[in-house]
Amino acid sequence: MNKKTLFDKIWDSHVVAEVEGGPSVLYIDRHLIHEVTSPQAFAGLDKRGIKVARPSQTFATPDHNVPTIDQHLIIRDELSRTQVEKLTENCNRHSVNLFGLGHPWQGVVHVVGPELGITLPGSTMVCGDSHTSTHGAFGAVAFGVGTSEVEMVLATQCIMQPKPKKMLIEVNGKLGKGVTSKDIVLYIISKITASGGTGYFIEFAGSAIRGLSMEARMTICNMSIESGARGGLIAPDDTTFEYVKGREFAPKGADWDKAVTYWKTLKTDEGASFDKVFSFEAEDIEPMITYGTNPGMGCKISATLPTGNDLTDNDKNTFLKSFAYMGIEPNTKMLGRKVDYVFVGSCTNGRIEDFRSFAAFVKGKQKANNVVVWLVPGSKQVEKQCIAEGIDKQLAAAGFELRQPGCSACLAMNDDKVPEGKYAVATSNRNFEGRQGPGSRTFLASPLTAAAAALTGVITDPRNFL
Fold this sequence. Notes:
The structure is a single chain. With 466 residues, this protein is of the alpha/beta class. The protein folds into 3 domains: 6-163 and 238-254, 2-Layer Sandwich (Aconitase, domain 3), CATH 3.30.499.10; 165-236 and 267-284, Aconitase, Domain 2; 288-464, Aconitase, domain 3. The chain has 16 helices and 18 strands. Strand 4, helix 3 (78-94) and strand 5 form a beta-alpha-beta unit. Helix 6 runs parallel beside helix 8 and helix 13 packs parallel to helix 16.
C-alpha cells in the first residue's frame, strides 16, 4: 500500500488535472477574499465579461483597511474607503457571501473563517493573503495566492499550483510555565530560520502540538509561512471536531456524521516519508521575543543577543543592518528595554483565548503610563464575547480599552500606525522594517509577554508575574 502523508491525501484528492512537467490543476473548496487583493481580480472578470463560477464557495470580509474605532462613521482615508466600497459593490454584483462593516460576522478573514465553520478538515482553501496558512490548523491545505490567482479561482474554482515538498516538525514534551503556542512557533522559526521552510508544506505534530487548543494551533499554522513555507497543517482530532461542531457553515445532522467519519482518516500513514524532518523538545522552549527585522531573528526572552561573529560576511552585514535599524547592540539583553506601544490582535493572536489570557494577566494591576496599548479583537464575534464575559470591564479597570475588529497595527494599512523610531511589542506575525508604520520597530511576542510589557513599560519576562 502506498503510504501517504496528511498533505498528500488532501492535495491528491483535489487534483483535477496534471500539466505534464508542470503544475497541478487543484480544485478549491473555499475561497476567502478581502478588500485589498480582490478589486483587480473582479476587474479582470468584468473585462472578460464573466461571473464568479461558484459564489456560494466564496466568502468576503473587509479587514486590512478598516479603522478600529468609530466603525459606524465613514472611513476617512480615501484609498481605504474606496477599497472597502469596491468589495461591497463586487460582492453584491456577483452574489458573493459578504460580512461587511456593521455585520455581526465581520472581522479578520482568518479569524472569521474558522469561527463560522467555513474552515473544515480535508478541504483546500486559498485567499489573496499570505496568512491563509492559519486554516491548516484544521487539517486543511490552505495557502495564500496572488491577485491573478484570486481571479483564476473566482473564474474557475481551480488554481494551477506546483506541489510543494513535505516537512514534518515534531514538538514533544510538556510546555513550561508562561509558554504559549506563539512561543513555540517563534522558537521553531528561530531554529530553522526565516527561509528554512522555503518550498515546503509543514505538518506540525508531536505531543506538545496535540495538547494545544484549536486557537493555539491556528497561531502555529498562521506563522508557518514566516519560515518561508507554503503553509502548515495539523492533523484533525477530537479537539478539532468539537470546535467545528454546530458552527454556522459546518455540516449538520447526518452530513456531520459522514464528515467526521471521513475526517478521522485524515492523518499521516505510519511509515509515510517526508522530505525533511525536525524534532524539538517542549521543555527547551521559553517565552520568546524577536529582536531583528525578520521573524527568524528571535530568542528566549532572558537570553543574551548573538554577536553575529559566526556568520559569513554577507550574512553578517544583513545582521548588523538589522541591529542598526532596531537601534540595538549585539551581545546585549532584551529584558528591560523601553517599550512605547503594545499591540494585541491580528490573525495570529486576535482570538477570544488571547483576550482571556491578557485580561487574566493584567487583572488587579495597572497599565504603565508610558505605553500606548491597542487591544483589537479579530472579529465582531470575539468583541461580542469579550463584552459578554466582562473582559472589556476587566481591561478598563486596569487602564486598557478594547477596540473594534480589524487587522489594525499588524500592517499599518489603516489608522493604527506605530510612529517612526518607536518600539512596539506586537502579537502579530511580522517585524519587517516599517511593517507597523514607516520607521517603526517591532518586537514579536505572545499575548502574555505583551501584557507584561504593557504593565511595566519595558520588555519583561511574563513568568515574573505567574
